[in-house]
Amino acid sequence: GTTVKNIHFDHEEKLVVLDLSREVIGYGGGAAAEVLLVNTLLFTLTEIEGVEAVQLLIEGENVETLPEGWDISKPLSRPEHINYINY
Questions:
Q1: What angle do CA 32, 36, 41 make, to 5 degrees?
Q2: How far apart are CA 62 and CA 73, in angstroms?
Q3: Mean pLDDT, the chain, as a whole number?
Q4: First CA to last CA across the chain, in angstroms?
Q5: Is 81 a residue whose pLDDT tops 80?
Q6: Could you tell me where the beta strands, DSSP code E, fall in 1-52?
Q7: What pLDDT sits at residue 10?
Q8: Cα(6)–Cα(33) distance, rounded to whole angstroms?
Q9: What band does 23 get if pLDDT is binned at 50, 70 and 90?
Q10: How far apart are CA 56 and CA 11, in angstroms?
Q11: Tell me, what's the pLDDT at 86?
Q12: Going by C-beta distance under 8 Å and a sequence separation of 6 or more, which residues neighbour residue 20?
């Protein structure tokens, strides 16, 4: 049920600001689901030419952390690896 409320690309900052509905925090599944959620968004959006970071908002608000503790208060960069088991 999560919806994209707004999306904006700041060309100068090379930053996508992605505003999601509050349903995004109801993903369930604990820390593993949270990692998958955030990494999926980061890998997808940073595939767009010129995008280097993503700022996540929930209902237009800058939220400090997701339920399992992932800090989303600042822009996030693409992780170096998507599967740490192989590294």
A1: 155
A2: 6
A3: 92
A4: 34
A5: no
A6: 4-10, 15-20
A7: 97
A8: 23
A9: very high
A10: 17
A11: 54
A12: 2, 3, 4, 5, 56, 57, 58, 59
Q: What is the mean pLDDT of residues 10-35?
A: 93
Give the list of residues 6+ apart from residue 27 with CB closer than 8 angstroms, or none.
33, 34, 37
Sole residue written with tokens 């939220």: 63
Percentage of the chain lying above the pLDDT 70 cut:
92
**CA pair distance 6, 20, nearest whole angstrom:** 7
The two three-digit tokens of residue 26, written as one number: 């109801």
Structure tokens at 2: 């999560």
What's the maximum distance between 2 C-alpha atoms anywhere in the chain? 37
Which residues touch 70 (CB under 8 Å, ≥6 apart)? 34, 35, 38
CA nearest neighbour of 23 among 57, 58, 54, 73: 58
pTM above 0.90, yes or no: no
